[in-house]
Write a structure and sequence with these properties.
The chain has one domain (3-117). The longest helix has 29 residues, at 63-91. The protein is built from four helices and two strands. It is mainly α. Helix 1 (3-21) packs across helix 2. It has a two-stranded antiparallel sheet. InterPro entries: Phage_holin_4_2 (IPR007165). Keywords: Membrane, Transmembrane, Transmembrane helix.
């Protein structure tokens, strides 16, 4: 899987975990399909935003660079979750309540994206 695929998978897993674990994110509707569509809508919005403005490493990077990318990506993800808290009730049955929930959801999402980006095989240089 290439780096872009790992980022997309990280966003999907992160959004799913945030929606499933955080009590401040509610998936309204009575049907299971409504809940699945709400999570998919959140994942699509998050994926599009993170692809338009990509903040993150391409492959393995040293820890200081990873922390810098993580902080910048966390801010980006928090802004997208904030957007989802506004768009969610208008477009689907997704409700995100409170700044703490937005920040925790951003942390979960960015952590999964960074984790999956670091799973790439190590790049060997010709001088080694």
């Amino acid at each position: 899987m290439n780096d872009q695929g790992r980022r997309r998978l990280g966003v999907l897993i992160g959004v799913g975990l945030a929606c499933g674990l955080l009590p401040g994110i509610t998936l309204g509707g009575t049907e299971t399909m409504d809940k699945v569509l709400a999570v998919l809508m959140a994942a699509v919005v998050m994926t599009i935003a993170t692809q338009l403005v990509f903040v993150g490493p391409s492959g393995r990077v040293p820890l200081p660079a990873l922390l810098t990318f993580g902080l910048a990506g966390f801010v980006q993800d928090a802004l997208v979750w904030w957007l989802l808290s506004w768009l969610g009730p208008k477009m689907s049955h997704l409700h995100v309540e409170g700044l703490a929930t937005i920040l925790l959801a951003a942390l979960i999402t960015r952590a999964t994206v960074l984790l999956l980006s670091q799973l790439s095989p190590a790049v060997e240089t010709a001088g080694d």
